[in-house]
Design goal:
With about 200 residues, this protein is an all-alpha fold. The chain has two domains: about 1-95, RNA polymerase sigma factor, region 2, helix turn helix motif (Rna Polymerase Sigma Factor, Chain: A, Orthogonal Bundle), CATH 1.10.1740; about 100-198, Butyryl-CoA Dehydrogenase, subunit A, domain 3 (Up-down Bundle). The chain is about 70% helix and about 0% strand. The chain has nine helices and no strands. The chain has helices at about 10-15, 20-40, 50-65, 75-90, 105-115, 125-135, 140-150, 155-165, 170-195. About 20% of the residues are buried. Mean pLDDT is about 80; it is low at about 195-198.
Length: about 200
C-alpha cells in the first residue's frame, strides 16, 4: 500500500511555489519513487534516465501552479512523466525492422528454444527482455507506451486511460495493433533466422 509513502500536502506545494529549497528537495525525494519506474519502463534506448528524470522534474516545477487537487499529486506527476517519455520516443523516429544479423548467439539460441517449445536456458528472462526491447523499438511511440503499460506493468485499460487521457477504445485498438506488429516482427525474425545461409 502507498500509506507508508509520505503524503504530499498543500503546505509542501505552497512552499515549493514560494521557492523554498528544502521543500523542493523534499518534494523531489517524495516523487522520485513515482517518476523513476516510469522513466525506466518507457526510456528511449539512447536516453540517460537521470537526464529524463531531471526534465520531468523541471516540467513539474514549471507547471506546479496548474495543479488543482482534482486528483492525487503523484498521479498528476505520473502523467507528466509518461507524456515526457512519450514525447522523447516520438522524437526518436528511428523505428525499424530488426535484421536477424543483429541477434547475438544467446538471443538466437533463446528464440530457437522458444520456437521448439523448450524452456529457456539460464538467463532466459534477461534475454527475453532484451529481445522484447528490440522488438518494441519497431513500434510507434504510442503503441510502445500502451504495450508497456498494459502488458509489462499490467495496468488495466481504465488505469491507462487515466494516465494518458485517452478513451478506452483508443487504448484497446492501439494495443491490438501493437501486439499484431510485435507478432509479425517476431515471425519475420524467426523466418529470417531459419532461412539457409549463403
Amino acid at each position: 500500500m502507498d500509506d507508508a509513502r509520505p503524503q504530499i500536502t498543500r503546505d509542501i506545494l505552497e512552499a515549493v511555489k514560494r521557492g523554498d529549497e528544502p521543500a523542493s528537495r523534499r518534494l523531489i525525494d517524495m516523487l522520485y519513487p513515482v517518476v523513476l519506474p516510469i522513466v525506466r519502463n518507457h526510456l528511449p534506448r539512447t536516453e540517460a534516465e537521470e537526464d529524463l528524470c531531471q526534465e520531468i522534474f523541471l516540467k513539474v516545477f514549471g507547471r506546479i501552479g496548474q495543479f488543482r487537487w482534482h486528483q492525487p499529486f503523484p498521479h498528476w506527476v505520473s502523467r507528466i512523466a509518461l507524456n515526457t517519455c512519450y514525447d522523447r520516443l516520438r522524437r526518436q523516429k528511428n523505428r525499424r525492422v530488426i535484421p536477424a544479423a543483429e541477434l547475438d548467439l544467446d538471443e538466437s539460441a533463446f528464440l530457437d528454444r522458444v520456437a521448439e517449445g523448450r524452456p529457456p536456458a539460464e538467463g532466459g528472462p534477461g534475454l527475453a527482455r532484451e529481445l522484447l526491447e528490440k522488438l518494441l523499438d519497431g513500434l510507434k511511440p504510442r503503441e510502445r507506451m500502451v504495450i508497456h503499460l498494459l502488458d509489462l506493468e499490467e495496468k488495466s485499460v481504465a488505469e491507462v486511460c487515466e494516465l494518458t487521457g485517452w478513451g478506452g477504445s483508443r487504448v484497446r485498438v492501439t494495443a491490438m495493433r501493437a501486439r499484431r506488429k510485435l507478432s509479425e516482427s517476431l515471425a519475420r525474425l524467426e523466418g529470417r533466422r531459419g532461412s539457409p545461409k549463403s
